[in-house]
Design brief:
This protein has ten helices and six strands. It has 213 residues and is of the alpha/beta class. One of its GO terms (molecular function) is DNA binding.
Length: 213
């Protein structure tokens, strides 16, 4: 079995020592180096050619996210596993987008970390349950937002699009060749279906979700 070369990146010496102490007991793993920030990590990757990088997120100087993006782009054979104390949705999403193949929290059980390292060597992604939950809730949220525009009729969508352009009811009525009263009725229906308080909120929501390009 090929020995897995691991580089540990973390700015907390206690974490570094703890990881080294445990991983050194694994016959299939060789600790080839350590770093305390993103810049050092890049230097070590270039010099030591590790198979796996265990990467912290929040470090002085270059963050783990930025370093992960550079490593996965410039050294595609190197697999990065995030090992962080943060499990918020934004951190998980940024790490995955940067190319991390795994996302584990620092309270991960040792045997699970080993499984994650082995999985990364096989090209398989692994996520801590909390990271999986964050990704799933993000997908659900996106699906809910995508579905919301479907509750509007074609005419209501057109009216909402005009609202996002900052047009008044009178201007919308003139452009669509309908009465202002009809425009107001459409807006009432739009706000009710989207559960919005006013037209400004509806326009901001539509713009944020890029409903109209």
């Amino acid at each position: 079995m090929k020995t897995i070369k691991v580089l540990i990146v973390d700015d907390h010496l206690v974490v570094l020592r703890g990881l080294r102490f445990f991983l050194q007991t694994q016959s299939a793993i060789e600790i080839v180096g350590q770093a305390q920030n993103g810049e050092e990590a890049l230097q070590q990757v270039q010099a030591l050619d590790p198979d796996i990088v265990l990467m912290d997120l929040m470090m002085p100087g270059m963050s783990g996210i930025e370093a992960t993006g550079i490593i996965t782009e410039q050294y595609p054979k190197v697999k990065v596993i995030i090992l962080s104390s943060y499990s918020d949705r934004e951190s998980v999403l940024q790490a995955i987008k940067a190319g991390a193949i795994g996302y584990q929290l620092k309270d991960v059980r040792p045997e699970v970390l080993i499984e994650s390292i082995q999985a990364a060597m096989d090209g398989r992604k692994t996520l801590h349950p909390e990271a999986t939950h964050q990704l799933m809730s993000h997908v659900v949220k996106e699906n809910e937002e995508e579905k919301q525009i479907d509750v509007l009729t074609p005419k209501e969508r057109v009216v909402l699009q005009h609202i996002t352009l900052g047009q008044s009811n009178k201007e919308i009525a003139a452009d669509l060749h309908i009465s202002e009263k009809t425009v107001k009725t459409h807006i009432t229906h739009i706000l009710a279906k989207l559960e919005m308080q006013d037209r400004t909120q509806a326009a901001l929501f539509a713009t944020k979700n890029k409903w109209f390009g």
